[in-house]
Structures are given as structure tokens and as C-alpha cells.
């Protein structure tokens, strides 16, 4: 008979995303960051490819990237109004730490790209869980900058890599609200030949 661990289920049940604008100082110190990353790499990884890496954005680097993203947004979306430009400028300025999770894809004769991308996505989710376990708020965001070639170049993302998510981590200014969740029974059916 399996041994249950209700604490693990309770942690999953309590997971909440905290809006980036509601994240502030203090952020994780180096020890907390390393602990979060150590937990985040414990994901399913078919073929043990480790198809991901991390890039941290902290301090002034967040604001520099925000300025560049705002300028790039004006190039990409010339009809964008001032509010959209300001949103882009502030995109990385709220949480004291942003961890970009980058999928490393490239050719692989055995493991499909989709499986490796899913592994990197699992890393994003595990990082959210780890941040919450250490008392921080966090949210997984992408937005157009995650898919823009110029932003990728600024961040050193190579041709065989993709940004899977920007994980914003900090101290929550408010308790993350619960939202309505889907009914798993309504989403489940048994296959029958």
C-alpha cells in the first residue's frame, strides 16, 4: 500500500500566482535562490538532457531591460499608446528577482523538441512551488518579449534556445487571491477501444 504525503498535496493546493505588480523587496538572497533552483531542476527529463538553463535579472539590469523592451515595443507596435509603452518599461521592475527559464532545444535524434520544451516548462512550475515554499510570492509570465528575436539577443539566447518563462519572485504585498479552478472530473474521460 502506498504511503501518502498529505503535505505535498497541501502545498500543491495552496499554490497561487501573485501579480508582478504586487511583488516587492525583499527578494531571495543567494542561499534562497540556490535552494529554489535546486528544487526546480528535479523535473521529469526524458533522456536526462537537462534541456534548460537559468538567467537571473536583478537590480538595475531589470530597469535597463525594461527601457530596451519599451523602445523595442515602439518599433514593433508603432500604434501603441503611452500606457502600453509604460507597461513595457515597467514589465521587469516590480519583483526584485526575475529568473528567465531558457529551453535548450537543438537537434536530438531520440528526444523530441516538444518533450524537452515541456521539461523546461516543468522547471518553471517547480520554481514557482519552490519560491512559495520559502515564503515568497511568484508568477510565471511571458508576453511578447519572450518571443522577440531582439530581446532574445539582448539576453544571450542562442538560435537553438527559447525563453519559456520569466519567473518573477519577491515578497508579496498582498495574499494572493484564490481563483476559480476547473473541475477535473469535467475534463476527464476514460478511453475505451
What would you say this structure looks like, in words?
The protein is an alpha+beta fold and 193 residues long. It is built from six helices and five strands, in the order H-E-H-E-H-H-E-H-E-H-E. It has helices spanning 6-13, 30-40, 60-76, 82-90, 113-133, 149-154, and strands at residues 23-24, 52-58, 97-104, 137-141, 161-172. The longest helix is centred in the middle third of the chain and has 21 residues, at 113-133. The radius of gyration is 18 Å and the shape is globular. Keywords: Flavoprotein, FMN, NAD, NADP, Oxidoreductase.
Helix-strand category: alpha+beta
Shape summary: globular
Order of helices and strands: HEHEHHEHEHE
Uncertain runs: none
Q: Using DSSP, what is the number of strands?
A: 5
What is the mean pLDDT? 96
- Largest sheet, if any? 5 strands, antiparallel
Count of runs of 4 or more consecutive helical residues: 6
Radius of gyration based on Cα positions: 18 Å
Percent of residues in beta strands: 15-25%
Enzyme class: oxidoreductase
InterPro entries: NAD(P)H_nitroreductase, Nitroreductase, Nitroreductase-like, YdjA-like
Family: Belongs to the nitroreductase family.
Pfam family, one: Nitroreductase
Keywords, separated by commas or semicolons:
193 residues, alpha+beta, five-stranded antiparallel sheet, 6 helices, 5 strands, globular
Amino acid at each position: 500500500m502506498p504511503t501518502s504525503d498529505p503535505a505535498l498535496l497541501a502545498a500543491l493546493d495552496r499554490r497561487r500566482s501573485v501579480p508582478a505588480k504586487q511583488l516587492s523587496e525583499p527578494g531571495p538572497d543567494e542561499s534562497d535562490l540556490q535552494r529554489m533552483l535546486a528544487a526546480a531542476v528535479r523535473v521529469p527529463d526524458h533522456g536526462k538532457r537537462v534541456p534548460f538553463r537559468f538567467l537571473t535579472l536583478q537590480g538595475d539590469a531589470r530597469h535597463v531591460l525594461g527601457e530596451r523592451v519599451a523602445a523595442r515595443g515602439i518599433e514593433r507596435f508603432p500604434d501603441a499608446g503611452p500606457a502600453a509603452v509604460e507597461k513595457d518599461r515597467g514589465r521587469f521592475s516590480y519583483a526584485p528577482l526575475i529568473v528567465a527559464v531558457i529551453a535548450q532545444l537543438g537537434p536530438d535524434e531520440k528526444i523530441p523538441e516538444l518533450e524537452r520544451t515541456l521539461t523546461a516548462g516543468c522547471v518553471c512550475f517547480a520554481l514557482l512551488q519552490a519560491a512559495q515554499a520559502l515564503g515568497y510570492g511568484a508568477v510565471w509570465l511571458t508576453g511578447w518579449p519572450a518571443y522577440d528575436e531582439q530581446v532574445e539577443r539582448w539576453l544571450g539566447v542562442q538560435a537553438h534556445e527559447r525563453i519559456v518563462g520569466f519567473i518573477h519572485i519577491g515578497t508579496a504585498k498582498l495574499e494572493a487571491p484564490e481563483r476559480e479552478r476547473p473541475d477535473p472530473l469535467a475534463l476527464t474521460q476514460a478511453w475505451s477501444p
